Amino acid sequence: MTPVPPTSSVRVVEQYPRSLAEFERQFGTEQGCREYLLRLRWPEGFTCPRCGGRRCWATRRGLLVCSACGYQVSALAGTILEGSHKPLSMWFRAMWYVTAQKTGASALSLQRILGLGSYRTAWAWLHKLRRAMVRPDRDRLWGRVEVDETYLGAKEEGRSGREAGKKALVVIAAQEDGAKVGRIRMRRVADASAQSLHPFVLDSIEPGSVVRTDGWPAYAGLAKRGYTHEAAPQGRLDVPGAEEDLLPRVHQVVSLVKRWLMGTHHGAIHPEHLDYYLDEFTFRFNRRTSRHRGKLFYRLAQQAVQVAPAPWDQLAKRVRGRKKGIKI
Question: Could you tell me the pTM of the whole model?
């Protein structure tokens, strides 16, 4: 066994590749990938999960052994990468490819670019990475925020208003940034009731913020929850521009997410997995101004070691044998 020096206290945020050439130089070997992963998981240096010890040894199998209590831990244990038998360098290439594509990647394209043996493996990898695109403790939106709902799904006869039917109802919050759209949040909800919409607002927006909605009654009561609620009357649908002037930022996001689902994923998505596609869109949208795609790669790799494992049975839950998804 060889001793492992304490990890550097240099912020890893400054250590991401700016180009494909830099990526290949830094992560062309398993050792380079593992060292980077260790710095991401323990940015202040190794800490034994059992005794809190700060020094460790590395075995030939890549396990870390605490020098104080002898506890063995894998750098991948308890992360989204746990249980993988593929090289870390292949996972890193997958993360680079996914974040380098501005519109995202399909399972088929990932299978081809990595030379994976099966479509199922590529599909599972993408869903694992989507689970790593959202931090559980991420900051909430603040300031002035527009909130509205939209339906994802084909038009159904006999359905009108806020009746979902077989369609998926998604609520969206868009933070104002002058005339532009700032950060966003999205979630699929069961219905358009206060019991469904209020928890989304509480989870997504800081109390004290101004929440602007249409006149839907379910939004009533937000003022009692610590928000300044602006309820604008619903515009007439037969007046050009009336609806767009009401909540322009959230409507822009609605248009973009529908176009993205149709373009990258061809509109065929299992409802059970829709939340993870929404998470991916949110991850990309909120980082759309990053100068380097490597910054997105860094964020995804950083969060991949903070998210719990997602075994195949959990990924494929309730969708085996089903071929129909949401048609946008």
Answer: 0.84
